[in-house]
Each structure stands twice: as C-alpha cells, then as structure tokens.
C-alpha cells in the first residue's frame, strides 16, 4: 500500500480531512471509485425524520440531534453515488428534502493479529461522502435505477421487467456528489512496537473475503429455465 | 424465516419501531444478540464533533445537523455493545460526551433476483441501536477491551501483550445499551408479482458469505512460531 498524502486534495474539506491516522488517507479519486465499485452496501446517516411534514409534533421523534443510519444498496455514475428507497420512508423523505447526510462504504479485508492488544486491528478500505442528496426524476430516475441494478446485479437489467409508473412513484431515487469525500485504506502486516517483536507470539493477517455461492433457484421457478450465464460469472 | 411482529416489543420505541416492511421486523432479543454476534463491523453515527470543547468556533465544522459515520469493530457484553476508538478522535469525544448516537450492524446474506426490477432486492440481517454511550473507565475499561478482542479474535487475548497504562489512556472505550433497538431480517426467495411468474426469466437467490482465508504470517515473524490452533479454528 502506498497511500499518498497531500494537504487538502481535490474533494477534501476540513470536514472530510482524515485526521486520525492520516497516513491511511487515500487521495486518488480513481481509488475512491474502485473502493465504491467493490462494495454493495452503504450506510447513510441523516438527522431527524422530515418532521416538518408531520401534522402533529412528536417529541419522541423530533429530537433535532438524533442521527439515524439506513443501510442501502447503491451504484455509481461517474462522480455521483446513487441509491434508492421507499418514497414512504421518513428517512428517505428527509434525504430527498436536502438534509445533510453522510454516506459510508466499508470493506473489511483482514483481521490483523499483532503481538499486542493495542496494535491488533483490521485491514479495510472505506469511503465517506458528505453532502446533500438530489432527488432524481423522469428519465434520470429510470437511468439511475438501471445503474444501481447493474452495479449490484451486472447483466440483469436486460432480463427483468422494468419498473411500472406506479413502482417508479413508490421509489425515491437519490444522487449524492463525490465533491466532498475522503477514503481510508489499511492493509499489510501488523505494525508492532519493536519491543514486542521478540515475544513468542504468532503475528500476521487473516484475510477476510466476501464470496458469492452458486445461484439457488426460486421455489416458484418454471421448469426448464436455467441460471443465466451472467449470474454464473459473478461467482 | 418467521419474524413475529408485535406492537412495541421490549426495547422498541417509536423511534426504533420498524415502519417500512414491518413483516421483516425481528422482535426476539436472543435473535438481536445472534445478529450482533455474527458481525464484526458496526457503523456508528453522531452529529457534530464535540465542538463545545473547541477553543475557536469553526463554522465549517460546527453545522449542528451534519451527521458523521464511523465504522468500528465491536463486541457485546449481555445487553450492551462495546466499541473503542482513539481518545484524540473528535467523533469519539462527542460520543464519550453523551451525544445521541445510532449504532448499526448490517449482514448481507444474498442477492435476490426477482423477475421484476421492483422486487429485486437483497437478503440481510440488521440491527439498529439508538441511545447515548457510556464511557468506561478502570477495570470495566480493560474488561471491555478484552470482550471486544475476544469477539473479533476469539482466543487471542491470552496470547498477546495487554495494553499499557499509556495505551489504555490513548483509547476511549464506549458501551451502548440495547434498551432501544430494532432488528430486521429478510431471507428466502424473491417475492414476485403473480403476473410476472410466467416470464421466461430465471429467478432465485445468490447467497453472499464472508469467509476467512488461511492465516498469513507477518514478514517480521520469528522463525519457528506456528499459527495458533485458535486462529486455524476461525477459518
């Protein structure tokens, strides 16, 4: 790993500047794209719940500083991440309304077994994006749904029934620019204190990987329909 | 899967009540424990950065409604989750100061290939905990560090150098009660619209699993030290 560090690279602000362990900062936008493209699930945070639209105030829900996190599948289109959720979700209403958000993708790559508790850690790649989402409509909304599907299920879109107008209305599709983002990457061997190197303790890394198992047909699949080649290619 | 649903089970409040797809709600506390015990990484959200402790106000950092997410390794002790971070981290200072937080664990179990775009989805297990953290000190702090280590690296604690006083001071250890939590679980076949079942499209699930590969010794490992049996047991 060679995470080049510069003071305030493009896309970084005081809010996304990597302060802890800055040697793990990744400043190359292409690398940010690669991390995003290797993930499937993002965690998105938002404060409150669009309570401005609630008819009756609810003190239990309207705490102005309570953050919520929602896990989402996502895709990427150039320098924007794309994700969707139910139009009826209060968190998606808040996001569509322009509430500040934090979008995070974390990929766990390994368990790092150092000789001390303090240096024991994990290898990972992560991206954090800050900003406010834009709600997509019209042709851009359908194109984003296809981009998300093709990120998560490459080759699938041409094979399935596209969303109906009613289904599209039931879905909120959001785009978030990578204008303000940061990434971190940790890999390689444990970084033990020199004084610990002579301990008779094994040290190293246990790699962690996400794997796809062979496709399992649905119980209601009509006989004679084989699993498509594009699915076999994922495994 | 049989996620029983009841109105407001123990530990659930209006804030954690599962509103979207409530049929996916998991109300059994033992099941919440099992989901937490199967994960390694949590995403923790907090608003702001403990700016009350900043000597000079910084408008770029002090937006009161900007949430941040930090990924953490974690452990569990009964009905509390435990995690740690650097005492110098502004987000950990905010959490230790009692800022409201959201702690989320998401396990991706499968890609769900329905016959329509709208019903295409993912199988997952997730837990969301809301609350304010308690900072641990003294013997409870060391015990929590051991619990986190034993969750992530079972059997390792007895083999490594315990943290020094200086290392313990550099670490903030937090506990968050499961008093206010919810869980969701989605598994099984795609849930296609009956009108789509006669499409000549394959449908089913591609299972997703996290696997550990064989341990890789550190480049600075002294010769003759074998990988411990407890590590081999993880794979």
Provide structural commentary.
The structure is a homodimer of 235-residue chains. Chain A is α+β, with helices and mostly antiparallel strands and 235 residues long. Chain A contains five helices and eleven strands. The first copy, chain A, has helices at residues 29-38, 90-96, 138-152, 165-169, 229-232; strands spanning 25-26, 41-47, 67-77, 80-86, 100-113, 121-132, 134-135, 171-177, 181-186, 204-212, 216-217. In chain A, strands 1, 2, 3, 4, 5, 6, 7, 8, 9 and 10 form a ten-stranded antiparallel β-sheet that branches. In chain A, strand 3 (67-77) and strand 4 form a beta hairpin. The longest helix of chain A is centred in the middle third of the chain and has 15 residues, at 138-152. Chain A is globular, with a radius of gyration of 21 Å. Chains A and B meet through strand 2, strand 3, strand 5, strand 6 and helix 3 of A and strand 2, strand 3, strand 5, strand 6 and helix 3 of B. Strand 10 of chain A pairs antiparallel with strand 10 (204-212) of chain B.
């Amino acid at each position: 790993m060679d995470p080049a560090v510069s003071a305030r690279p493009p896309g970084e602000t005081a809010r996304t500047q990597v302060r802890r362990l800055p040697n793990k900062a990744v400043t190359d936008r292409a690398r940010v794209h690669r991390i995003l493209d290797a993930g499937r699930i993002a965690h998105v945070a938002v404060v409150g719940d669009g309570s401005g639209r609630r008819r009756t105030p609810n003190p239990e829900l309207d705490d102005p500083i309570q953050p919520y996190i929602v896990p989402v599948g996502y895709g990427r289109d150039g320098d924007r991440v794309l994700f969707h959720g139910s139009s009826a979700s209060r968190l998606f209403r808040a996001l569509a309304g322009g509430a500040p958000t934090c979008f995070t993708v974390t990929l766990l790559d390994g368990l790092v077994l150092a000789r001390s508790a303090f240096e024991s850690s994990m290898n990972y790649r992560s991206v954090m994006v800050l900003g406010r989402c834009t709600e997509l409509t019209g042709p851009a909304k359908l194109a984003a749904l296809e981009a998300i599907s093709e990120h998560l299920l490459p080759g699938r879109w041409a094979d399935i029934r596209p969303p109906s107008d009613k289904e599209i209305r039931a879905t909120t599709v959001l785009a978030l620019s990578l204008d303000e983002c940061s990434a971190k990457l940790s890999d390689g061997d444990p970084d033990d204190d020199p004084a610990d190197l002579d301990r008779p303790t094994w040290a190293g890394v246990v790699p962690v990987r996400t794997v796809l198992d062979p496709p399992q047909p649905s119980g209601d699949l009509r006989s004679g329909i084989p699993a498509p080649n594009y699915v076999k290619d994922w495994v």
